[in-house]
Design goal:
eight-stranded mixed beta sheet; zinc ion binding; 3 helices; metalloprotease; single chain; MPN
Length: about 130
């Protein structure tokens, strides 16, 4: 079954990647039950933002705190590869928690979704919805 992603989310991810170029954009994905409905951009606090990303830890704390209080559930994370492919890099593979979270990677005008699990990253087919 394909992941459902709001077409508005796809638009936001593409726009954030374009706006952040030549640096990597990053943020948090929200949703549940096989759906991604919202995003929250976060500051990329990595020391080398042209080639790496690190989501601002306060943004993560705030997102998880809001989810526990009944807000949107954290489904995963996103970032861009300004000069790469829309697939996990070697660094992404090394740093991933393998916790089942969804990763969206934006590159070259494309958004691809991946699930980080015990076996590494698996591609997630998706359909854009008009929600």
């Amino acid at each position: 079954m394909a992941l459902e992603v709001s077409s508005a989310v796809i638009h936001v991810l593409l726009e954030q990647a374009r706006s952040a170029h030549p640096q990597e954009c990053c943020g948090i994905l929200f949703g549940a039950a096989g759906r991604i409905l919202q995003t929250a951009p976060a500051r990329n606090v990595h020391l080398l933002p042209d080639s790496h990303f690190e989501i601002d830890p306060q943004a993560l704390v705030d997102a998880h705190r809001a989810a526990r209080a009944g807000g949107p559930q954290v489904a995963g994370f996103y970032h861009s590869h300004p000069n790469g492919l829309a697939e996990p890099s070697r660094t992404d593979r090394e740093m991933a928690a393998r916790d089942g979270m969804i990763w969206a990677i934006v590159a070259a005008g494309r958004v691809c979704f991946w699930r980080s699990g015990d076996a590494g990253f698996e591609p997630l087919p998706y359909v854009a919805t008009h929600r």
